[in-house]
Amino acid sequence: MLTEVYKEMLGAKSVIRDLAGRAAERGREIGYENVFDYSLGNPSVPVPDAINKSMIRMLTEMDSRSLHGYSPNPGIPEVRDAVASSLSKRFGIPYKREHIFMTSAAASALAHAFRIVTSPGDEIITFAPFFPEYRPYVNLSGAVLKCVSPDTESFQINFDEFESMINEKTMAVLINSPNNPSGVVYSEETVKKLSGMLSDAQKKYSHAIYIISDEPYREIVFDGKEAPCISKYYDNTIMCYSYSKSLSLPGERIGYMAVNPAAEGADILVDMAVQVSRGIGHNCPSSIMQRAIAENIDLTADLSVYEKNMNLIYDKLVSLGFTVVRPGGTFYIFPKALEEDSVAFCNKALKYDLVLVPGDSFMAPGYFRMAYCIDTEKVERSLPVIEKFVRSEY
Amino acid sequence: MLTEVYKEMLGAKSVIRDLAGRAAERGREIGYENVFDYSLGNPSVPVPDAINKSMIRMLTEMDSRSLHGYSPNPGIPEVRDAVASSLSKRFGIPYKREHIFMTSAAASALAHAFRIVTSPGDEIITFAPFFPEYRPYVNLSGAVLKCVSPDTESFQINFDEFESMINEKTMAVLINSPNNPSGVVYSEETVKKLSGMLSDAQKKYSHAIYIISDEPYREIVFDGKEAPCISKYYDNTIMCYSYSKSLSLPGERIGYMAVNPAAEGADILVDMAVQVSRGIGHNCPSSIMQRAIAENIDLTADLSVYEKNMNLIYDKLVSLGFTVVRPGGTFYIFPKALEEDSVAFCNKALKYDLVLVPGDSFMAPGYFRMAYCIDTEKVERSLPVIEKFVRSEY
């Protein structure tokens, strides 16, 4: 009999996908270059040549049975070594092969992390605004997602509400900094306060509470800064990473889960992830992609365009009187809408061929998201359109 | 708190992996060419050049953002079209894009299929001997795996026991033909009888019972035959396929789930699979692998070596007096051991550097599996060693 859980989910439509679909449709009418589509968080910069060159070289030179052959479930040993050594050097944390579990990008890393540290009914707390998929990701793992409402002043953490939400069922906290959709990077102060509160809660409830740190935007940080590395501030941290954004290859599905060597259970968490894989049909990410990553371990695509776009948009929005927190990274910005109903606001924008996503999708109604991973030239052309929209409607 | 489910699984070791490890260790002592390692089902024939050439061409010519960009969750539309059209032509079943769901190989296809057609506590029946991973695959999905003991005469289906096991909780039957580990292909008679019994059971219990047909060895069939296509005999069939064996690229994790267009719910099963993906962290198989497959849709590696190896081994085993069913496909053979305790039998074989896997792992004690996906030259060298082992020990 078809399971009701998944059948019932069929009705719900993704607002973002729906908007992207409308943008594409409008594009067919007036030319996609005339639609200012800020809906989708899809990397717009090319994949570094070095990645493609590595792949071509391997396809040309390697024995095809080795190249395309089975990878052990937690990943090819040399690839895990390369990831561990790169993380160690960068963050000064002694990661070793046994702490690294290669995954089909961040979604898969999260799916494993949730299942390792929670039993059905346990709670995972996250902070609005957040990526809407967190809800099915967590709830379908058997755990329960609890959401702290946004600190709209700064999009850091609403600690008062967070504190009231922690209880004996809290097994993990899911964070995402640099953040989709706000673009905000958690400050050192935020990370320290979070870490302190969780340490206290661990003592109070006599069990580990893990931070599951979803970090696909780690490499996209502005003003020459680095995002505070959560694992440096809190031992029980499971880092979930994806190369989708930093290398512009979201379709290849490659990333990893990195367990802090100082975490409780650090010696068995990756082995447990291997067991999780058996249940969810994960075996390993593509072998050739694993090898291509390892050969180019510290490489990123040229991500500078995102900062350029952010500055153009931020300055324009400020000049038009928007209330907006300046993004510290990612390719998103999350301004306050000019009316309370952000769905209505975004619908009005559509008339100007401006595709914006209402904050309701991210548990922060009254705001809207712009994904500025588009060509700078298009961003520039969109600025007078944004101005026209605002002047005419508000 | 670390979940007990996965923690408890850590103790259990895979007998096959353990044996493969011992074979590798012995190989370091005496040279791997002197270890007759029949433990692992890892394809030994090269990947067709055309696959690598397609990949090199795409890496050279395509825009990297398109090539490595997000694939829609159920797969790239043109790739799904190519799979549907190839299956339609071959089996005369009108598959369309909407029936095809691209997956990270068969394990992932199965993980989706189980979750679509069962709710927690529902039962899935399978037939010994079977791939040992079926148990965690099914049980960790929330369903319960029930096992019919083997029909050791022919390794077809023990229908009497099967009939007694069907009840109102039976939602699916999981089959694998050509079969790992027996090498047997279900005959048309078997498939018709299975189909008839399930049709009756569907009426009796007033709900659909799906056949989940795991077909990674579909292309490896001997004597110029084809394995009966299950979907042709039973409407409610969900085919789970992998290119791991037919194209020798198990590390690239690519395959699909194909829903019979005549199945109950055929219009929503793939959409439901998309929802399942959200929970288990699956997004799509690698984009470049999807495209490489589509460009070479009807291609296989040169699989003839497996039949050659099978004949050599089968003839030798028969001449030595083994009771053995001649494989109709795959790269496995599953003879009866020369003593009741097949673990003891395989341990004795190890002294001759013959690595065989006890049937206990496949729920068929008293038998043993040989995976003859190794070079023919090595198979030939192993024959006198098998003879020596048998003559000396029995």
* Helicity range of chain A: 40-55%
Number of strands of chain A: 12
Global Rg of chain A = 21 Å
User: Which band does the percent of strand residues of chain A land in?
Assistant: 5-15%
| Shape annotation of chain A | globular
CA-to-CA gap between the ends of chain A?
53 Å
Provide mean pLDDT of chain A, rounded: 96
Across the major sheet of chain A, the strand order is: 2-8-7-6-5-3-4
Largest sheet of chain A: 7 strands, mixed
Which chains share the greatest interface? A-B, 77 and 77 residues
Q: Specify the structural class of chain A.
A: alpha/beta
Multimerization state: homodimer
pLDDT under 50 segments of chain A (min length 5)?
A: none
Q: How would you spell out the order of helices and strands of chain A?
A: HHEHHHEHEHEHEHEHEEHHHEHEEEH
How many helical elements of chain A? 15
Question: How would you sum up this structure, described in words?
Answer:
- The structure is a homodimer of 394-residue chains.
- The mean pLDDT of chain A is 96.
- Chain A has a 7-stranded mixed beta sheet with strand order 2-8-7-6-5-3-4, sandwiched between helices.
- In chain A, strand 6, helix 10 (230-233) and strand 7 (237-242) form a beta-alpha-beta unit.
- The longest helix of chain A is centred in the middle third of the chain and has 18 residues, at 188-205.
- Helices cover 42% and strands 12% of the residues of chain A.
- With 394 residues, chain A is of the alpha/beta class.
- In chain A, helix 5 (77-91) packs parallel to helix 12 and helix 13 (304-319) runs parallel beside helix 15.
- The interface between A and B is large, with 77 and 77 residues.
